[in-house]
């Protein structure tokens, strides 16, 4: 199974520093704000297009979880599974999305951490997420993005790791991407 | 006021039940006493308490209990209560308490079996009834504790059948789960998910063998998996396990449902066990089991194809994907599910990988499958609180099931036999207010106090 391919580098600890101009940092920040907006507006097709072919989306189940291979995760999804989730939430007979989940992401405290072994940019941010579907729910945490530079000067997501402050909470469901 | 047996009996008909069994807090309280106060309930697996002093907290019905490994290597189950002021001795979760329990309130200490060890400043108790040997000064043990192949169960009643007899035909599901390991042993691994459902606990048990809901409730899920598979031109394991719910009615009608006494049962597997020879993970697993048990036995072990097994009151082990969904009632309209995943000792790593993936994709709170179940359970709970009718139907294929010495077997996989069987057990428990040992002890204490 590709999903449990241990060669995928899940580390968000930089192996070297990154030197970015103020303008480049600004573009990284705008990228994260744009990603959050796509999720809030449920523009999932556009959100899927932000990823590299082998990009992985990870929400660990445990604080300081080392990897998604030995323990369960709240989300551990490759391209195929991200697409399946979008297909499901957009299906007309998605009973648990009636009414829809509404969300507002607040992204802040953005810092450039450095580069990983493959030269991907590691960016850390803090997330405050308010969700509404019948009940209001608050999720928050530290988010790590590993970004690959594209030829046109933009970014694609190689890894998004969301360390929820309440990852060990009792949940009813987590249906949409955080 | 406690409901009379006549009133309770009238709530269950051969083909239907009164919605009150799902919505009435008084009935829930009685269930905690008469079902959870008597039946053997799964507490946890021995691998969760490997070393002396290791503990795992959980609940038997509405009772907070601690499973703990004592110095003699035995696993004990005690109520999580200090006999002094009643404080819970350990916080929720797992941990190691060391050589003894120590209450955080006044430092009373207890041996790992709950018996009284000591307390500070004994001179203040001179001339009182304080006596370390008096059970009033110890943490109370649950009446009976037994283990079946490492699966620890406890009963709050001193009376009743032994564990093996209680499990009856579903003991073979635990056997099969263990035999999938070449050394016959499993351990809890990879962590557990906890999911809260806004519905009565019985709704989940009924759904486990409800084959009529799969292609309706999970339509968005299996359609999404099939669309994705079509786009990819293949159906990998991750999609295959979501695809199963979309089988046509003819498929579900052919499945076998088994119902045993005490509300237990199992449902035949959805996935083809002969896939073992086609898929490399199953092939490797088969090779390891053949070395350990011989080819015939290995074929028999992997060929036993069960989907959900029900151990009524405890939850649902899944042998093929090495899980136990432990079902804990919280209140009349809240149920907590704890999803444990097991590693088969000595089996290839890829077998555990598959179990991990199954847990992540099918039973996690963020799966594409469970949210729709949780939604319909909640709708049942809310709908049954309206005045839109009083009875819940269980009539599908009524009267067609075949009796066997240890229970019943369906003639049709869409039969509502499992639900009728569960309510037969429910009625048997609920009409039998036999005092538990706990209450007998309380009565004895009350007698002593008034004497």
Give a verbal description of the structure.
- The complex is a heterodimer of chains A (178) and B (451).
- Chain A is of the alpha+beta class.
- Chain A has a single domain, classed as Nuclear Transport Factor 2, Chain: A (Roll), CATH 3.10.450.
- Chain A is 20% helix and 38% strand.
- Chain A is built from 3 helices and 6 strands.
- Chain B has 451 residues and is α+β, with helices and mostly antiparallel strands.
- Chain B is 34% helix and 23% strand.
- Chain B has 16 helices and 22 strands.
- Chain B has helices at 5-9, 20-23, 25-34, 163-167, 171-179, 201-208, 214-217, 219-232, 237-243, 249-254, 280-293, 295-303, 349-363, 370-383, 417-430, 437-450; strands at residues 16-18, 40-45, 54-60, 63-69, 75-79, 94-96, 101-102, 109-110, 116-118, 144-148, 151-155, 186-188, 193-197, 257-260, 265-268, 306-310, 315-318, 323-331, 334-344, 391-393, 402-404, 407-409.
- In chain B, strands 12, 13, 17, 18 and 19 form a 5-stranded antiparallel β-sheet that branches.
- Chain B is globular.
- The model of chain B has no long low-confidence stretch (mean pLDDT 94).
- Chains A and B meet through β2 and α3 of A and β13, α8, α9, α13 and α14 of B.
- Chain A: Keywords: Dioxygenase, Oxidoreductase.
- Chain A: InterPro entries: NTF2-like_dom_sf, Rng_hydr_dOase-bsu.
- Chain A: GO terms for molecular function: dioxygenase activity.
- Chain A: This is Dioxygenase, hydroxylase small component.
């Amino acid at each position: 199974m590709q999903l449990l391919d241990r060669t995928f580098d899940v580390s968000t600890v930089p192996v070297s520093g990154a030197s970015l101009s103020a303008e480049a940092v600004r573009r990284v920040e705008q990228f994260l704000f744009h990603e959050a907006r796509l999720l809030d507006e449920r523009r999932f097709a556009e959100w899927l297009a932000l990823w590299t072919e082998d990009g992985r989306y990870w929400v660990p189940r445990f604080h300081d979880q080392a990897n998604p291979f030995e323990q369960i995760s709240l989300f551990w999804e490759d391209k195929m599974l991200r697409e399946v989730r979008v297909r499901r939430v957009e299906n007309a007979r998605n009973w648990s999305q009636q009414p829809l989940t509404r969300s507002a992401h607040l992204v802040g405290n953005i810092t450039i951490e450095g580069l990983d072994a493959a030269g991907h940019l590691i960016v850390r941010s803090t997330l405050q997420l308010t969700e509404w579907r019948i009940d209001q729910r608050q999720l928050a945490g530290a988010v790590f993005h590993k970004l690959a530079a594209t030829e046109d000067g933009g970014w694609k997501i190689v890894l998004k790791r969301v360390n929820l402050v309440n990852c060990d909470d009792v949940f009813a469901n987590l249906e949409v991407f955080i | 006021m406690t409901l009379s047996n006549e009133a309770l009996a009238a709530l269950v008909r051969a083909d239907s039940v009164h919605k009150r069994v799902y919505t009435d807090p008084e009935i829930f309280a009685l269930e905690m006493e008469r079902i959870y106060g008597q039946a053997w309930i799964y507490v946890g697996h021995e691998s969760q308490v490997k070393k002396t002093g290791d503990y795992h907290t959980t609940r038997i019905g509405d009772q907070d209990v601690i499973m703990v490994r004592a110095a003699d290597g035995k696993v004990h189950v005690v109520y999580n209560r200090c006999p002094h002021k009643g404080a819970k001795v350990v916080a929720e979760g797992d941990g190691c308490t060391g050589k003894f329990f120590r209450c955080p309130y006044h430092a009373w200490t207890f041996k790992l079996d709950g018996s009284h060890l000591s307390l500070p400043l004994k001179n203040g108790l001179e001339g009182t009834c304080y006596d370390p040997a008096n059970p009033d000064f110890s943490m109370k043990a649950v009446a009976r504790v037994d283990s079946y192949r490492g699966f620890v169960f406890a009963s709050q009643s001193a009376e009743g059948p032994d564990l093996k007899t209680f499990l009856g035909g579903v003991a073979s599901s635990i056997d099969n789960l263990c035999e999938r390991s070449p050394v016959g042993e499993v351990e809890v691994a990879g962590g557990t998910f906890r999911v809260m459902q806004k519905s009565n606990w019985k709704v989940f048990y009924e759904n486990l063998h409800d084959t009529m809901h799969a292609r309706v409730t999970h339509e968005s899920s299996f359609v999404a998996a099939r669309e994705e598979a079509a786009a990819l031109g293949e159906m990998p394991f991750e999609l295959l396990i979501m695809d199963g719910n979309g089988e046509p009615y003819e498929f579900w009608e052919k499945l076998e449902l088994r119902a045993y006494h005490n509300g237990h049962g199992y449902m035949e597997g959805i996935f083809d066990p002969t896939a073992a020879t086609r898929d490399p993970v199953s092939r490797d697993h088969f090779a390891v089991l053949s070395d350990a048990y011989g080819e015939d036995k290995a074929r028999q072990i992997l060929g036993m194809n069960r989907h959900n097994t029900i151990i009524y009151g405890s939850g649902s082990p899944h042998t093929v994907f090495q899980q136990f969904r432990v079902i804990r009632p919280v209140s009349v309209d809240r149920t907590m599910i704890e999803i444990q995943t097991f590693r088969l000792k000595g089996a290839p790593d890829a077998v555990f990988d598959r179990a991990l993936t199954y847990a992540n994709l099918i039973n996690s709170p963020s799966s594409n499958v469970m949210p729709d179940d949780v939604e319909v359970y909640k709708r049942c709970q809310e709908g049954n609180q309206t005045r839109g009718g009083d009875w819940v139907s269980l009539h599908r294929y009524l009267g067609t099931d075949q009796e066997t010495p240890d229970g019943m077997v369906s003639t049709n996989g869409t039969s509502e036999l499992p639900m009728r069987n569960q309510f037969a057990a429910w009625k048997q428990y609920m009409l039998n207010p036999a005092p538990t040992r706990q209450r007998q002890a309380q009565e004895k204490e009350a007698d002593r106090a008034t004497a």
